[in-house]
Amino acid sequence: MTGDIGLAPPRSAPGCATPAPEVLRERGQREVFCGLTGIIWLHRKIQDAFFLVVGSRTCAHLLQSAAGVMIFAEPRFATAIIEERDLAGMADCQDELDRIVRQLLDRRPDIRTLFLVGSCPSEVIKLDLGKAAQRLDVALGGRTRVLNYSGSGIETTFTEGEDACLATLVPEMPAAAADAAPSLVIVGALPDIVEDQFLRLFAELGIPVAGCLPARTVANLPAIGPQTRFLLAQPFLGDTCRALEDRGAKRLDALFPFGAEGTTDWLLAAALSFGIDRMHFNAVVAPGRERAKRAIAHRHERLAGKRITFLPDSQLEVPLARFLSNELDMIPVEVGTPYLHRDLTARELALLPAGTRISEGQHLDRQLDRVRADRPDLTVCGLGLANPLEAEGLSTKWAIELVFSPIHGFEQAGDLADLFARPLRRRDLLKV
Amino acid sequence: MQLAVWTYEGPPHVGAMRVATAMEGVHFVLHAPQGDTYADLLFTMIERRGKRPPVTYTTFQARDLGKDTAELLQAAIREATERFAPEALLVGASCTAELIQDDPAGLAEALDLACPVIPLELPSYQRKEAWGTAETFYRMVRHLADRSLRPAPREGRRPLVNLLGPCALGFRHRDDVAEVRRLLDVLGIDVHCVAPLGARPADLVRIGVADFNIVLYPETGEPAAQWLSREFGQPVVRTVPIGVGATREFIAEVAALAGVDPAPALADAGSRLPWWSRSVDSTYLTGKRVFIFGDATHAIAAARMAAEELGFTVCGLGCYNREFAREMRAAAARHGVEPLITDDHLAVEDAIRAASPELVLGTQMERHIAKRFGIPCAVISSPVHVQDFPARHSPQMGFEGANVIFDTWIHPLVMGLEEHLLTMFRDDFEFSDAAGPSHLHGGVATPAAHPAPQDEPAEALAGAIADALTIEVPATDTAAVTWTADAERELRKIPFFVRGKARRNTEGFAVLQGRREIDLATLYDAKAYYAQ
């Protein structure tokens, strides 16, 4: 191998970056999930927590529709369904909530952290869940910590529910000692297997990792202080990022760890920040990077030159379009995102081909008109749209799978590419 | 407040969506916050529809609340009517919009649209999905039906009926309609209109020309049928033809109303359940204790079939829809059991545990309860998952429906017998727990590497067996390869249902490469290798 393992684009000083691309901003009907959906993967990750949604039957119905069969494995989430008498003032909502929480804790005494999760109905009737959380926290006397965040549709879109949850956890992180050595925190819920791969790589690199946010138990949240540097593993963590910065921690700017390039850049940002020797970095990263490239190469032939459109869903759209365009030579036609964190995705945006149509927000019918006019080879969209688009002869990849599957890091790069290749391969296979 | 993990029914606006989606030429504008579009996937994924449900959501967000959500609603209505040009428009509010108290009816009226607008009141904090379905259908019929129409004189024409109740996301509604149509055709009766499923607003306008109505699903069709009976004097057939006995009664009742001879339909040779049930192979079914839960219509029909047509003993009977509590109580009394009327799945679970049945007939939820208890189970009612919207013809109604039901209910019992035999032989040396699933992996199991099978769900074993059967074993001797502790730990993180395959492939790869030891690098090299 010759020279350093590459970096793109150059880590230039802020201000000299490529001019920000034009972004098409639209408002109208949005075909997206609300932030409550984040509970489905967060409860698997944070093993000592329970998520109690305070909402309507619709919220409960959404969770059960999104959770599929997981609902039956005695899941650590539930809904306190607001009823007529709660609205009519016949029952005091705060008293009712106390009753429900006690009922819940009687059934599940093992719960150490309880999240009261706000919904559209609870926000609209201005039920003060913050106050409820504080009161219950005191009342339970430290046996169970009670926290609160909002996953309502009026405030959060899909993965933003994770952002809201993690931002609530930041004040719970212990303060690092004033004289503590610098350390790294990985931010964003990752499948355990991916998290372990990253932790191993950082250990081999010699970078001290304080832990992950979220940790697998709330009791084990990493310490944080002005010496803390953090890497975002997910692009949708704007509020969490701000909360961490408010506690003095410093974000390391990097591509998100998708594909060989993204993962290398992400690791390199930490290596540079911790003064890791470049030769050592190359030596540690090379095997995984090569494996990733080999695995990606298997899918290159099928994906290269294919045109792809992303409809807004998770905010993963921009980094994934960058990966598919830079490493698989796909052509992004339109990259829609529910929300664009310009600072967090600046490096990603700079790597998208000139002329890529970036859209933020959604006017569903107009966007579908554009999809029909563009006729991309592959459209990444939600399950409410996937089959209808297939019926119109457009190949689709349903987006939620990208949130539930392990896709980050070197070892998953081939799997990630395959998620996009499979629908096209299937389309070619079927003779009926 | 009510603590809920599982709900048998969605909110009432999902019921309204089921009517809108079932029909043609209808559009529904739902005042709802961002996120409520999740309900679309029930139709596109579970029912596998190739079209978006005809629903436009206003998707208001927090920043709209301070401003004019009413204007947002009007804009959505205007745009939807221009784009989709519906023959009738439904407008309603979801649970959150109900709280902000915009008036969809008044706001839609003010727009002076070209098509009829039917405003819906959907009290989300009191009512549920089935109520929303029935109410929406009733409102549509009431709003659209031309009250001047009456049946033509009977001379020289075949009797004409409406089939009321089938809708989108209905359990086997598609095939039930086909089956009932076939029965009616044999009787010489024509179907004027099936509604809501497949009907257009124009069909509802002319609903009064039929001689009588048949309510296939009281949960969704009864309010409309009652109104039609009052307004048009159309008689109503309420016998639900699920089961051989009920189908015969249905034929007799319909034939009497239509003034035709029931004999040709009754003589249907397609009715195989009676003989299947009498054949000696079925003797072991006698007195099997069965617990039945679902929507009232399906549960009551199932109880009758269980007792009279299969010779089971009904040991528990209940429903989740309180609207039909009276009917359910009467049915439970006939079978000598306490009726269970609840929408709390934990209460159902307790009742099943207490009754200790040998077969559970229920919804998707009871399927999972039964699975946990290790009891055979079949699905008889909504809510159901994707597998219960099958590609093949699978009615519940009519004689073919009875055939389908016989097979569906008996199948898990036969499976249950197989399961029992497998457990009996479990202590055989080949199946011994102590031996672990080692025979599946070509290596000797160590307790650390393989937790005892009883720690894992039964599916783990099943999955591993499936793997062992389907994966090609490399011809080389993999026993010489050892796993490092790291690699072994990593392997445990792979889901159980593909773990066996991963182990086998990695070992094959190691042998191929001449490696004696499998470490993390080998594991992932192998993964990359097989990714080709």
Automatic annotation (TrEMBL), chain A:
Molecular function as annotated in GO: 4 iron, 4 sulfur cluster binding; ATP binding; metal ion binding; oxidoreductase activity, acting on iron-sulfur proteins as donors; oxidoreductase activity, acting on the CH-CH group of donors, iron-sulfur protein as acceptor
Alphabetical list of HAMAP family matching this protein: ChlN_BchN (MF_00352)
Entries under Pfam families matching the protein: Oxidored_nitro
SUPFAM superfamilies: Helical backbone' metal receptor
Nitrogenase/oxidoreductase component domain ranges (all copies): 34-423
Organism: Novosphingobium aerophilum
Enzyme Commission (EC) number: 1.3.7.7
Summary of the function given for this chain in its UniProt record: Component of the dark-operative protochlorophyllide reductase (DPOR) that uses Mg-ATP and reduced ferredoxin to reduce ring D of protochlorophyllide (Pchlide) to form chlorophyllide a (Chlide). This reaction is light-independent. The NB-protein (BchN-BchB) is the catalytic component of the complex.
Note on cofactor: Binds 1 [4Fe-4S] cluster per heterodimer. The cluster is bound at the heterodimer interface by residues from both subunits.
Gene Ontology BP, a term: photosynthesis, dark reaction
Pathway, per record: Porphyrin-containing compound metabolism; bacteriochlorophyll biosynthesis (light-independent)
Protein name: Light-independent protochlorophyllide reductase subunit N
Cofactor(s) listed in the protein's UniProt record: [4Fe-4S] cluster
Binding site for [4Fe-4S] cluster: C34, C59, C120
Catalytic activity reported: chlorophyllide a + oxidized 2[4Fe-4S]-[ferredoxin] + 2 ADP + 2 phosphate = protochlorophyllide a + reduced 2[4Fe-4S]-[ferredoxin] + 2 ATP + 2 H2O
Keywords from the named record: 4Fe-4S, ATP-binding, Bacteriochlorophyll biosynthesis, Chlorophyll biosynthesis, Iron, Iron-sulfur, Metal-binding, Nucleotide-binding, Oxidoreductase, Photosynthesis
Assigned protein family: Belongs to the BchN/ChlN family.
Domain of life per record: Bacteria
InterPro entries: LIPOR_BchN/ChlN (IPR050293), Nase/OxRdtase_comp1 (IPR000510), Protochl_reductN (IPR005970)
Subunit: Protochlorophyllide reductase is composed of three subunits; BchL, BchN and BchB. Forms a heterotetramer of two BchB and two BchN subunits.
From TrEMBL, chain B:
Keyword Ubl conjugation on entry: no
Reactions it catalyzes: chlorophyllide a + oxidized 2[4Fe-4S]-[ferredoxin] + 2 ADP + 2 phosphate = protochlorophyllide a + reduced 2[4Fe-4S]-[ferredoxin] + 2 ATP + 2 H2O
GO molecular function: 4 iron, 4 sulfur cluster binding; ATP binding; metal ion binding; oxidoreductase activity, acting on iron-sulfur proteins as donors; oxidoreductase activity, acting on the CH-CH group of donors, iron-sulfur protein as acceptor
Record bears the keyword Lipoprotein: no
Keywords attached to this entry: 4Fe-4S, ATP-binding, Bacteriochlorophyll biosynthesis, Chlorophyll biosynthesis, Iron, Iron-sulfur, Metal-binding, Nucleotide-binding, Oxidoreductase, Photosynthesis
Entry's EC annotation: 1.3.7.7
A GO biological-process term: light-independent bacteriochlorophyll biosynthetic process
Cofactor notes: Binds 1 [4Fe-4S] cluster per heterodimer. The cluster is bound at the heterodimer interface by residues from both subunits.
Protein's pathway: Porphyrin-containing compound metabolism; bacteriochlorophyll biosynthesis (light-independent)
Binding locations of substrate: G416, L417
Domain named Light-independent protochlorophyllide reductase subunit B-like C-terminal: residues: 483-527
Membrane-spanning ranges: none
Active site: residue positions: D281 (proton donor)
Entry cofactors: [4Fe-4S] cluster
Residues reported in the UniProt entry to bind [4Fe-4S] cluster: D36
UniProt-listed Pfam families: Oxidored_nitro, PCP_red
Superkingdom of source: Bacteria
Enzyme superclass (EC): oxidoreductase
NCBIfam families linked to this entry: DPOR_BchB
Function: Component of the dark-operative protochlorophyllide reductase (DPOR) that uses Mg-ATP and reduced ferredoxin to reduce ring D of protochlorophyllide (Pchlide) to form chlorophyllide a (Chlide). This reaction is light-independent. The NB-protein (BchN-BchB) is the catalytic component of the complex.
Homology family: Belongs to the ChlB/BchB/BchZ family.
Oligomeric and partner information: Protochlorophyllide reductase is composed of three subunits; BchL, BchN and BchB. Forms a heterotetramer of two BchB and two BchN subunits.
Name of the protein described by the UniProt record: Light-independent protochlorophyllide reductase subunit B
